[in-house]
DNA sequence: AATGCGGGTCTTTTT
DNA sequence: GACCCGCATT
């Protein structure tokens, strides 16, 4: 099949304008998109309706430009119009514009919208895509410069970890103490910085496996080269190395890319930054035409190496840069913007923007804060609001539930299935990560790329054909000894007597199968071939014979896989697509509520947004606080800001008093972010009907008598918390005491207060003081003690494991709970 | 070689 | 609580 690179002529001939400052050239018909863009030029309708800042961002095409685009200020519109403008003015051919996005979704959207502007599809924009997809393109073209072949395979995380594991074991390192996963993350962070084995600082190298970090890294890269494979990080790092070490190649790209556009600049990591720097270099005195669009307040990917610094430093990096702020918001009501602005103002590291809107309506609802007893009630209450809105003629498509962590999703799914609310999960367990899909893909990979040992190892004994560990090791060792791929090694081994007759026959069949399929590759329709492969390998049969509950679903998925292949022209281009685009597009025609993480929600908007889980420890997430300190907290706050600004009209925030984390019930306190919302834009909503009553199977909660949240939220305690919020906030995250201690403290406080006075929530806000006094109290339980638990009622301790108690509750049965949540009775 | 059990681990976000 | 892994058993 053809190299994906082939269909893009690398040299388009001279640019419409070699010299950027020269007048626009005459156009000789040419590719469809440019011609259409030309037609639009006489009446550049696309410029209509832009506000002055947006117009400036579109029309300042020469030199470096930083567009600070707040949420909902028309960022994508600016980017796409800018491209249309560049094409329309004849400043560059479509193939001379490099436009990088961070996600596939964003790239897709931009393509579509440029298409609308220019009136047609965007076939002519080959260099519009994610960093990774463009990296692949460059790498395929120059693969030999880093010791790869152009048809290298792209490893996903799973392959990567299996490979690292092999290497760790080969080095004689205990893979229990030094897990492959950990090293994968470590190496990932190195690659995010653009480092190769030689570049990592001594300290970093020593940090893993008693100083074997560097050797492992080297061994890993060597192995990738023999496998003719690249991992995700390499898709950025290899091109950087190529551009750095080969001035002629760099010059080619310099000549090629007249205009560079970068979306979500705040999310770029160091490697991506280096990559952009290289490509945007220009001869002395000639500033690059690079336009970076981003929002420092929406930088939420620090944990995977993004450097907010890149955007904060832009003017230094590109002297003379024009900086354009987009602050007029076209999405949300003044209440939502007011709430979001006040929240984000608690961050210190900002370039400082304030969103505004003129569209203030007295009827606009404020941001609603709700309390629920536990996650179950939270889901039910949100479901009820959704049903109410739905019967009020609101589309489910206009509603979204945005969670901090994916485990929160399950509760909503269960609830919605029960009550028949249609929903879609975005970014959940992915199609291409399913076992059967990965197996099937492994077959295809070996057919297309016989040196792909990882794929080969995955399916050599699938379905079971008697080639167990012993046989695999034999093949593996033989291959390594002769320095050939395992499939080739197998072909040799079946001619010898090294294997016992049984496995030998099985292996022979495998080898012959792959030979036959590889031969069919050129002259068989690829969907047909794929089906044949799954059929003849016995893979389909394996699942047909499987009586387990999930087998039919798996077969269904395999069918789906084949179907989705038909859109591609070959098996190979399909494989490429899958490795880069792990998500499957959802059908927007069905009316469904979206459930997704806050991270996945960036860039989207909904009329109504639900933000559950505003509790300390979950949001802000404890781990961000522990590992990231103040920066971590600020990133969490930006995440909250992203969440709020997704809403156009309604924004509902929820928090619960009890959440099950790691299988244990824990009391929680409301998120500090709630304290950071301005009262002028926020309403504390009525408690849901049946508050505290629907606790399911564990009998009457003593909180049934508790006053509703509403009352306590407006108590002096709440007012005081508001007044002191700066102090309170600082207190909370300043201490390294850790949330566990705090939670235990609060938990005890809770049950005590709750028992006597019927006021829960007041405690939580004021709780700090109380918490400190109880946190250090040693727990003194013994097996057999009679205890009371806030949720499960009375019971007897049957086992104690540190601070974990196993209690046999009278009504709820046996549960594991932390000792902080029960008290002796 | 395949299956089943028990223990240990890990639970934020993802191109 | 859920999942993964290794071990022991057949």
Number of domains: 5
Q: Pairing-aware structural class of the strands and helices?
A: alpha/beta
Q: Quick one: how many beta strands?
A: 21
User: In which range does the helix fraction lie?
Assistant: 40-55%
Major beta-sheet overview: 8 strands, mixed
CATH architecture of the largest domain: 3-Layer(aba) Sandwich
GO biological process, one term: recombinational repair
Region (Disordered): 1-35
Enzyme class: isomerase
GO cellular component, one term: DNA helicase complex
Folded structure, characterized:
The protein is α/β, with parallel strands linked by helices and 825 residues long. The chain folds into five domains: 44-151 and 231-326, Rossmann fold (3-Layer(aba) Sandwich), CATH 3.40.50; 153-227, Arc Repressor Mutant, subunit A (Orthogonal Bundle), CATH 1.10.10.160; 336-430 and 587-684, Rossmann fold (3-Layer(aba) Sandwich), CATH 3.40.50; 432-580, PCRA, domain 4 (Orthogonal Bundle), CATH 1.10.486.10; 785-824. Helices cover 46% and strands 13% of the residues. It has 34 helices and 21 strands. A hairpin with a 2-residue loop joins β18 (793-801) and β19. α2 (52-59) packs across α3 (75-88), α18 crosses α19 and α20 crosses α21. Residues 1-31 and 688-778 have low confidence and may be disordered. The structure holds a DNA duplex (15 and 10 nucleotides).
